[in-house]
Amino acid sequence: MKSIGTDSPPYKLKKRKQVAENTRFNIYFDHLVGAEEVDVPNYLVVSPKRFVADGYSGVAILPVIEGKIALLKIYRHAIKDWSWEIPRGFVEPGEDLVESVARELFEETGLRCAEDNILPLGSLHPDAGTLSARIQLFAGIGCEVEQPYRATEIGHACMEFFEIDALQQRIHGNDIQDPSTLIAIFRYLHMDDAPPGPE
């Protein structure tokens, strides 16, 4: 059995048309053609403008402070609703992934975490059907408050700290739906040295 990624694509890119952009993203309509009458003239692709090694465009971090998980409450205009999320952002020029995620953590929360305590949790594609992006996830173990939380970005409202059992209740109650957050929590709880969940 072949693994994912070894098969040839079932269609080809015939033409790409840029239809919009902002400071962070380019938006394209791709014309895809292939066998079995594949002819899609306006396949939407949203692509970050900046990538670093291995195709990463962003980072996200699960902050752990005194055994609790810090999450941000953010109003997301696209879904017209509130969302509980871990801090995340784009990689800036000249940064490696750890430097980038440490900066994002401090900017969004006021928390600091020693680089030796920033542990990789693998990567994810947040929306492989549309978004041409790859995010590296991290856990920040033993974070400390360096300055009080201040909402500095659009939609950001507050930061709260959750015990593991309360966090899992919110997940099962569908209060946490953000993919980066859910996957980071899952991978963190399955690390060898992660704290146990509720009995």
Question: Could you characterize the architecture of this molecule?
Answer:
InterPro entries: Nudix_hydrolase, NUDIX_hydrolase-like_dom_sf, NUDIX_hydrolase_dom. It comes from Nitrospina watsonii. Residues 54-184 form the Nudix hydrolase domain. This is GDP-mannose pyrophosphatase. Keywords: Hydrolase. The chain has helices at 97-109, 164-172, 179-189, and strands at 11-21, 25-34, 38-48, 58-65, 68-76, 81-85, 88-90, 111-112, 118-124, 135-140, 144-145, 156-162. It is of the alpha+beta class. It folds into two domains: 11-48; 53-189, Nucleoside Triphosphate Pyrophosphohydrolase. Strands 4, 5, 6, 7, 9, 10 and 12 form a seven-stranded mixed β-sheet that branches. It has a three-stranded antiparallel β-sheet with strand order 1-2-3, with no helix packed on it. A hairpin with a 4-residue loop joins strand 5 and strand 6 (81-85).
List the SSEs and their pairings:
Blueprint: E1 11-21, E2 25-34, E3 38-48, E4 58-65, E5 68-76, E6 81-85, E7 88-90, H1 97-109, E8 111-112, E9 118-124, E10 135-140, E11 144-145, E12 156-162, H2 164-172, H3 179-189
Parallel strand pairs: 4-10
Antiparallel strand pairs: 1-2, 2-3, 4-5, 4-7, 5-6, 5-12, 8-11, 9-10
Short description:
17% of the residues lie in helices and 41% in strands.
Fill in the CATH topology of the largest domain.
Answer: Nucleoside Triphosphate Pyrophosphohydrolase
Mean residue pLDDT? 91
CATH hierarchy: architecture of the largest domain = Alpha-Beta Complex
Order of helices and strands: EEEEEEEHEEEEEHH
Could you name the ranges where pLDDT drops below 50 across 5 or more consecutive residues?
none
Instruction: Please tell me what the overall shape is.
Output: elongated
Structural class: alpha+beta
CATH superfamily of the largest domain: Nucleoside Triphosphate Pyrophosphohydrolase
CATH class of the largest domain: Alpha Beta
**Into which percentage range does the β-strand content fall?**
35-45%
Number of domains: 2
Compute the number of strand runs: 12
Largest beta-sheet characterization: 7 strands, mixed
Calculate the terminal CA-CA distance, rounded to whole Å.
39 Å
Discrete helix count: 3
Percent helix: 10-25%
Gyration radius, to the nearest Å?
A: 19 Å
Cofactor: Mg(2+)
Domain Nudix hydrolase: 54-184
Pfam families: NUDIX
Catalytic activity: GDP-alpha-D-mannose + H2O = alpha-D-mannose 1-phosphate + GMP + 2 H(+)
